[in-house]
Amino acid sequence: MSYNIPKQLNPQVISYITLRKTVGILAILFPVIIIVGSVIFGECDEILGNLSTYYHTNMRNLYVGILCAIALFLFAYKGYDRRDAIAGNIACILALLIAFFPTSVTELLTPCISSPYENKISSSIHFFSAGGFFLIMAYFSIFLRLHWWKGIQKYHPIILLETLTLWAFGISWLVKGNTIMIDKKVKSDA
Question: What DSSP assignment string belongs to 144-189?
């Protein structure tokens, strides 16, 4: 028996558009939820150096849960072609490895992080998985032929990104050279 119900009326069908929106929203909100949540619901009075460290705060369950949700969506996503589907599956695995193999925390403990954690194998898996995950996210964002890319070609995005990267590099070296934003504690070597 065939039910000729249009997709938009069938509550069991999740469109790729909805899937993409959900992944996008989760990715954007992930750092906000983790950081703000640790300040509001935990005893964190500072922002930690990287997102991976938040695994060791009271936000651990949300950290793992959001990464698992992103992984599930990436697994379900089949994309425009086979490369897109493969990248999604690899990113899914990497997101799960990030979630279940935490990074080590050995620096001074804060009210946010009450106990040290050191596991070189787990930390290495986490590090390489995070690096691979971010590379695939860059691949999704830059190299796949997304529909919006053609629309922004007229703005010359490559030169814009190159310029922004060079500006960030140049500013960082001007700060290091005590040219701008001079730290009063740092004395010049010259």
Answer: S--HHHHHHGGG-HHHHHHHHHHHHHHHHHHHHTTSSS--TTPPP-
C-alpha span between 95 and 77 (Å, rounded): 14
Angle formed by the axes of helices 82-100 and 60-76, nearest 10°: 160
Token pair listed for 15: 């469109």
Among 30, 119, 104, residue whose Cα is nearest residue 68: 30
* Residue 1 clears pLDDT 60, i.e. is over it: no
Q: What length is written for the chain? A: 190
Tell me the β-bridge partners of 117. 105
Query: What are the CA-CA distances from residue 158 to residues 38, 118, 161, 163 (Å)?
Result: 37, 41, 5, 8
The answer to whether the beta carbons of residues 74 and 106 sit under 8 Å apart is: no
Question: For the segment 81-129, what is each residue's pLDDT rounded down to a tens digit?
Answer: 888 889 999 999 999 999 999 999 987 777 888 788 999 999 999 999 9
Question: Which of 53, 44, 73 is CA-nearest to residue 130?
Answer: 53
Give the closest residue to 91 by CA, choosing from 108, 70, 113. Answer: 70
CB contact set of 149 (below 8 Å; sequence gap of 6+):
157
Rounded CA-CA distance 106/118 in Å is 6
CA distance 44 to 24: 27
